[in-house]
Amino acid sequence: MEITKRFDRILRIFFILQSRVIITIEELETLFSISRRTIYRDLKALEGAGVPIAYEAARGYSIIDGYRIQPSRFTQEEVLSLMIAEKIMQQHETQFIKQHFEAALMKVKASFQLHQKDDLLNWQDKLEVSGGLNADEYLPDVINLLLQSIVKKKISNLSYVKSVDLSAVTRQIEPLGLFYESSFWYLLAFCHLRQDYRNFRLDRVKKVFITEQDFTIKHLPVDKLRNDNMPSSITKITVSADRKFAHYLFWERQNYGYKNEVITELGSTMYFEYRGHPTAFARWFMKFADVAQIIEPVFLKDELRGYLLAGLRD
């Protein structure tokens, strides 16, 4: 059993090496939750099997370019997961991502065994994924252009509609990273006008033009910048919902700092730690005011009551 477990781990390390330009020993330790000594032994085993592994000081390990083995040991669960991913990506709102994912997945499918292709065929009508955002809300190649700007470290000119305006404004930016959050794609960039980092919602981008100007400063990694720019204050919110209707909150609550839920015969109590402005939480919660209530904080409960009363005025 231990030999089988080690064999599977070594094989996974091989495919990780084959799928990455380079990987550090620390990343491998974290991925497999094993000691550095064990990782070294596994890498030696791969070398002994003829895999040409290269090591670059201060960077990590890689497979010498040109050496590839077709991955053929897909499990049934992996094939099913790929089919689910395909269904989801078919509904993706960004055409560039959808088209290139389909092209990449076709190459993966080419390595499937005959019985796995039969499984895919039989599963096709057993899973349905509803559409998401309208593709018309996004500039067709916006992600492609921004990724080019990020990789080349070239300044871009962005035509952007702010939430409070009807007409677009132009901003000169240094794009740093893209992230998907609360049902929208965002760009984190250094704005030359504000001389600070800003988030731009991609469905509000009307035009992107990549210039030949290099970035003006060296930026920190995106995850570090995002953490530094996250709101530091957290509002702890407790919500009580009718047990019959609590599931209505389920799909969106993750976007509002949901932490956990306690279900009793009387109903459901949900706990949130919201990092955004509390008003945004209250306005979202208005949809459920007839089947749920805010228990605390009291100020947010009063704020919600004010919105509801204002909506009833003549």
Low-confidence stretches: none
Morphology call: globular
- Terminal Cα separation, in Å? 74 Å
Strand order of the largest sheet: 6-5-4-3-7
Task: Provide the helix percentage.
Answer: 25-40%
> What gyration radius follows from the Cα positions, in whole Å?
25 Å
Q: What is the number of helical segments per DSSP (H or I, 4+ residues)?
A: 11
Written overview of the protein:
With about 325 residues, this protein is an alpha+beta fold. Helix content is about 40%, strand content about 25%. It has helices at about 1-20, 25-30, 35-50, 75-90, 95-110, 115-125, 140-150, 220-230, 250-255, 280-285, 300-310; strands at about 55, 60-65, 155-160, 170-180, 185-190, 195-200, 205-215, 235-240, 260-265, 270-275, 290-295. It has a five-stranded antiparallel sheet. Strands 9-10-8-11 form a four-stranded antiparallel sheet, covered by helices on one side. Strands 1-2 form a two-stranded antiparallel ribbon. The protein is globular and about 75 Å long. The protein starts with a helix and ends with a helix.
